[in-house]
Amino acid sequence: MASGQQQPSRSELDEKARQGETVVPGGTGGKTVEAQQNLAQGRSRGGQTRKEQLGTEGYQEMGRKGGRSSQSGGAAGGAAAQVSKDDLHEDLDVDESTM
């Protein structure tokens, strides 16, 4: 902060939080300064736990993939490819008369 400016008081921060403003980094969604601090701390702890479970390499890979478990990704993967019955027969060179 620039010199001459003072830190906002806790009551000022609480008022901003009640209005929906984030006053603590990572505290998005909290309606008081204390709630935002608890949210930020919990998110940090959750990330550390996940990193311990996956190991550093797995955690970094998950970050590269955006949290998806596979490249095709299901609902998180965007628009799913629509495949018709005709497309399958065409790709497999299946003779429909034998079906």
Automatic annotation (TrEMBL):
Gene Ontology biological-process annotations: response to abscisic acid
PROSITE patterns registered for this protein in UniProt: SMALL_HYDR_PLANT_SEED
Compositional bias annotation for Polar residues: 1-10
Low complexity composition-biased segments: 68-83
Region annotated Disordered, chain positions: 1-99
Acidic residues: bias regions: 89-99
InterPro entries documented for this protein: LEA_5, Sm_Hydphi_plant_seed_CS, Small_hydrophilic_seed_prot
A matching Pfam family: LEA_5
GO cellular component: cytosol
Family per record: Belongs to the small hydrophilic plant seed protein family.
Protein name: Uncharacterized protein
Organism, scientific name: Papaver atlanticum
